[in-house]
Amino acid sequence: MTASRTLATAARVLRQLRHDPRTIALLLVIPSLMIILLRYVFDADPAVFNSIGASLLGIFPLITMFLVSSIATLRERTSGTLERLLAMPLGKGDLIAGYALAFGALAVLQSLIATGISLWLLDLNVVGSPWLLLLVALLDALLGTALGLFVSAFAASEFQAVQFMPAVIFPQLLLCGLFTPRDTMQPVLRALSDVLPMSYAVDAMTQVLHHPEATATFARDTGIVATVALVVLALGAATLRRRTP
User: Fold this and answer.
1) Which residues does the UniProt record annotate as the domain ABC transmembrane type-2 (predicted)?
2) Which of 102, 126, 207, 245 allows an S-S link to 13, with CB 3.0 to 4.6 Å?
3) How many Å apart are CA 232 and CA 236, to the nearest integer?
């Protein structure tokens, strides 16, 4: 891996995305609209929104980044762009890191917009620092990017890439503790939730919701999310194929 090739790849991806307003809207607008919709769904009982809003502030970006990164990478492979790029002196690590950097930059904007709207427009009440909330939202978005880049290697079409969402995202959504506390789940489900990264993303948001300072649990949770994202990116580079058969 070289910094110049990684940065050149990231710049190319961002230039392509700049000419795709629908993708930009999906990344930057839809998560915030979903949070606004959720706030007014629970308009009669704002306490409910306050209890789950912080968790969804991390989950929505994770889902959107997963979709966009998996489909964008697959499109490059099916169009032959990826094969041409890898015929140049560009390693798989440079390519994956460049994609992660480009989508990471968009994740920063996405997290800033969604966090700002939640805190100052929708009056999401958190005890912890807004910067800690932003950090978790950003890590969740990067995790979604890493998962999307990884699963794109196993899809032969954009339709198949979307089909990975029920397999990769939905089980984590059901077992992350958003709907019911994880310690009340059946032992098998609890054990499964303990190895799913979204569980730690939700736990980290819960820590920000209830504690004014970063706790040891918060540091553990964010460390796990960041580590999983890096490991999945490495796996994505290892499994990246030049083209779809």
Assistant:
1) 18-243
2) 102
3) 6
Q: Residue 242's pLDDT is what?
A: 53
Listed residue (69, 29, 81) closest to 169, CA to CA: 69
- Can you give the pLDDT at residue 241? 60
CA distance between the termini of the chain: 26
pTM (2 decimals)? Answer: 0.84
How far from 97 is each of 53, 66, 84, 232, CA to CA, in Å? 31, 16, 17, 12
- Spell out the residues 6+ positions from residue 243 whose beta carbon is closer than 8 angstroms to its own: 77, 78, 80, 82, 83
Can you list the residues of the chain whose pLDDT is less than 70? 1, 79-92, 240-245
> SS3 letters for the chain?
CCHHHHHHHHHHHHHHHHCCHHHHHHHHCHHHHHHHHHHHHCCCCHHHHHHHHHHHHHHHHHHHHHHHHHHHHHHHHHCCHHHHHHCCCCCHHHHHHHHHHHHHHHHHHHHHHHHHHHHHHCCCCCCCCHHHHHHHHHHHHHHHHHHHHHHHHHCCCHHHHHHHHHHHCHHHHHHCCCCCCHHHCCHHHHHHHCCCHHHHHHHHHHHHHHCCCCCHHHHHHHHHHHHHHHHHHHHHHHHCCCCCC
Six token digits for residue 217: 């649990």
**Can you give the residue ranges of every domain in the chain?**
3-239
